[in-house]
């Protein structure tokens, strides 16, 4: 049958997988060549039918196997082409490559750290997984103290926890017993919080200064924080507002005049004209006691790095710091 040779040639010459299916149907489909031949069998004399049927079956097998062969060849070819066309030449120069940006949180960290290193503070780090003693107990937050609720905590099964602030580094540093102490401690902290201005992981910088006798007092604290806030925010007004922390006495929160409305009242400062930026105080005696120090005095402070970054860069959703969106990061 001459159509068989033609079809076999067509199969050999196929270039695309999608044409193969077309060809297959023209053979085996309802109106295909072979289907027609098979249905013609009934019009053939009984003697001849056996031989013709056998021939048809041979042809069928031949066609099927050459179709299969063609399919495998074409599939491999198309895959090769795809791989070739998607290959990336990593050595090519791309004029669009962006320089590496600083993350706003890191930039803010660096600015804070620069100031205190310049003021002769050393940098100390503490563990992120803390025990109850360093995170709470030694900081005058005994079990069932209501202030523990302020810092809704992530606990592990063994009673350890993710530190809720950098203040445990105060305790760890004082436990070493070397005076004078003049440190800051930058790092991540964790609380069960998530909204525009809170994320379950955020960053703080703690500060601690301790020396013998009554050598360190609130005036020292006031001087350094005022100087620091002017360094960070420029010409702002600063006020110390009496407050409470279990581990300092007296305690204060520090406000700067609103950098957006210059103190006249706006949405950011809730129309108060002031922005709260950190907490501080004179280290409480029982904190020294829990850390094994006697006859010393000191001050401590703590600040939220995201809060500073939001104010410095006018970012109003804290969560955007952690979404790694290049459109935001490119601006730094
Ligand atoms: N640890 C306090 C907080 O997380 C901040 C603070 C540190 C306050 C040191 C006073 C002294 O809110």
* CATH fold node name of the largest domain: BirA Bifunctional Protein, domain 2
CATH C-level of the largest domain: Alpha Beta
In terms of DSSP E residues, the strand content is: 15-25%
Tell me the CATH architecture of the largest domain: 2-Layer Sandwich
- Ligand set: phenylalanine
Key terms for this structure?
332 residues; alpha+beta; BirA Bifunctional Protein, domain 2; two-stranded antiparallel sheet
Give a short summary of the structure.
This protein is of the alpha+beta class and 332 residues long. It has helices spanning 2-13, 17-28, 33-40, 46-86, 104-118, 132-135, 168-175, 218-233, 285-291, 305-313, 326-329; strands at residues 122-123, 129-130, 161-162, 181-190, 201-212, 238-245, 248-257, 274-283, 296-304.
Outline the structure in words.
41% of the residues lie in helices and 20% in strands. With 332 residues, the chain is an alpha+beta fold. It folds into two domains: 84 residues, no CATH class; 191 residues, BirA Bifunctional Protein, domain 2 (2-Layer Sandwich). The model has no long low-confidence stretch (mean pLDDT 92).
Q: How do the helices and strands line up, and which of them pair or pack?
A:
Elements: H1 2-13, H2 17-28, H3 33-40, H4 46-86, H5 104-118, E1 122-123, E2 129-130, H6 132-135, E3 161-162, H7 168-175, E4 181-190, E5 201-212, H8 218-233, E6 238-245, E7 248-257, E8 274-283, H9 285-291, E9 296-304, H10 305-313, H11 326-329
Parallel strand pairs: 1-4
Antiparallel strand pairs: 2-3, 4-5, 5-9, 6-7, 7-8, 8-9
Helix pairs in contact: 1-4, 5-10, 7-9
Phenylalanine binds next to strand 8 and strand 9.
